[in-house]
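Batch manifest, entry 17 of 40.
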Amino acid sequence: MSQKDLAPLAHTVPDACQRLGVSRTTLYELIGRGSIRSFKVGARTLIPESELRKFVAEKMGIAA
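Output type: structure tokens
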């Protein structure tokens, strides 16, 4: 198995905040606005890696 195969498919809120370099409040605002989709597993909110990458790609498109 490669490192890519072992990478998480979804991140907890603290991990997603670290990946994006934003605060918890900012992440929840982005989720609330629908800019980043999330899902619940029990009490945990998880954010798919694909959503983080999509968000950054969209922001880079706007900046270009």
